[in-house]
Amino acid sequence: MTSLNQEGKIAVIIKNSILIKDGNPARYRLQTKTDGPHMDQSKPYRKITFGERHKNEPHKIILMVGETGTGKTTLINVMINYMLGVKREDKVWFEITDDQSDQTSVHSQTSIITVYGFYLQESPIDLTIIDTPGYGDTRGVSLDKQIAMSLLCLSESAEGINEIDAVCLVINATQNRLSDRQKYIFDAVQSLFGKDTAENIVLLFTHSDGARPKNALMAVQEAKVKCAVNDKKQPVYFRFNNCQSDAADEEYDEDEEDKERREQRLNQSWETSSKGTMQLFKFLDTIQPKSLQMTREVLLKREQLEANISNLKARVQMTELKQNELKQTQEALEKNKKDVKENKNFEYEVEVVYKEKVGIDTSKASKATCCTVCKENCHYPGCWWVIDLSWCEVMKKDYCTVCTKKCHYSKHIKEAKIYVTKTKTEKKTFEGLKKNYKDKIVAGVSVAKKLEEELQESEKEKVKLVNEAFHCVETLQIIALNTVSLFTLQHADFLIEKLKEINEPKKAKTLEDIKKSAADGKKKEHWNR
What we know:
It is built from 13 helices and 20 strands. The chain is of the alpha/beta class. Helix 11 runs antiparallel to helix 12 and helix 12 runs antiparallel to helix 13. The two termini are 49 Å apart. This is AIG1-type G domain-containing protein.
């Protein structure tokens, strides 16, 4: 039986809540405060809080990750009702989630993480749940990257979320194998965290009938999901049922046996979920939280790597086009070598390289960060929400880590345009060529020789950038939990080609081995199906 004190507490909560639907149980939405992008455009996340944070109370922070439809929203409410002490016989169900959280359509506009802060006066702990709605939906990599950067922003914000107690992978207990999308989601999440976070990753099985989810556990093991293990080297998991908020007296339950079976099912649902929540909270008491410092390093390195590779591709293109311009100039000098020797003027045509600003592909990004001094794209694609450019992921101590001159952020601009490299045919003269190089040529050095030197400098810059990009990959290999990240594979071919061009066969072989390892893993998964 529910105690009088508990009845009184629940009555107070009901009085201050909003009725969603009457019934058994009656569903109520808790009165919460919401803070998010609609109030502050600089925040790529929103926060929903119940109660006031107790600075001296133990604080547990968990990250919920799962494919749309696995029951994350219900699971969040299960934990809230457990902390409120709600029992089956209370015939009431409270929800902290809102309508936006309940959206499961692939067209849902939910594209940011939601932070639920649950601060109950009588509770021995404060709980923060970071939910990642839409993770792995049809919007794919761009949305998932946005969620990753939301986590980075949250870790650096005034919210003070600098550590995570547990990363909870939510899986349907009835699954026989993980879908490609789920594997993608878990790979993406694991690649966000440092190697030392594996012991804080746990499995939450929803829609459980209370039995050991043998097939789902085997599917997790076959997919090589890294997570905490028990003394028997088995994955740490907790079971939940998602039927607790179902009504016990639906109109179609006319038969008494049907009603009795439904009542038994609901009682079992409450028992399974309550036990799962209790065990999860006990686990949270025993595990040491993990700092997000390494996660920040992983995210920033990944952003800088992608930005460097994008910038590198543009600079390589410029180098190759300048090579072509040089060859055409050399051919013109050779063709007119008599005039060159006699210092006579002559005309010739070359394909001249230039840069032009054009509108961006809005399917890749809404904005781009570009350097107005170097006339380069420093962060595209992938640049999105930041208002203050000093916060941009490619900036370090107020200076750009990407553009040629590593300019101050104030020399950059954020807009829906990028620089593109183009060529146009121009008529040039030998007199103009000499005038152009007048201040650059010293005694005994020809125009052609000076052009060769410039090309060599450009090649040195290319070598430097390729090595920097490879160094970023190496760093990710060292600090990332999931070393064969989707991001690394996405750019592997390009880097392998360029490493071979600059005569770095060992580094190219390293990336080829990573690619082969990932390919072998996929083949093994295919054979196991």
